[in-house]
Please model this.
Amino acid sequence: MKVKTLSVQQPDADLIASGEKTIEIRKWRTHYRGPLLIASSARPANQGPAGVALALVDLHAVEPMRRGDWRAACTDWYAPGLFSWHVRVLLAIDVPWPIKGRLGIYETDARSAALRAAIVAWGREHAPGRGRVSKS
Model:
């Protein structure tokens, strides 16, 4: 089973995995909604686990950044023209595994049984006729 993945620099990756950070700020938008594996970037390696899978989140909205988004994004700035990716944690990864990061959203293997189960559960909850539809 494959899972959509996003590399995020530390300490932001840990903040997302803990549920403290519920908005990831990006320069670009995506039409994808659904399960998204958060992997920590390999660099810088001195601010927490680097180059590993940390959490599965539900990317449920992407919209232009608003002034009030800074707190949920765990930052102290606002910049027009950026996008707020709204996430909620579905599963914290107990035993992180190495991920070779890339730019953008990319696919990796869903290596743990718990991760696969969380993706299947999300799919059941969001099946056609039960809510939103995921786009690739």
Remarks:
- The first strand starts at residue 2 and ends at 8.
- The beta strands are 2-8, 23-26, 34-40, 53-64, 83-92, 105-109.
- Helices lie at 12-18, 113-125.
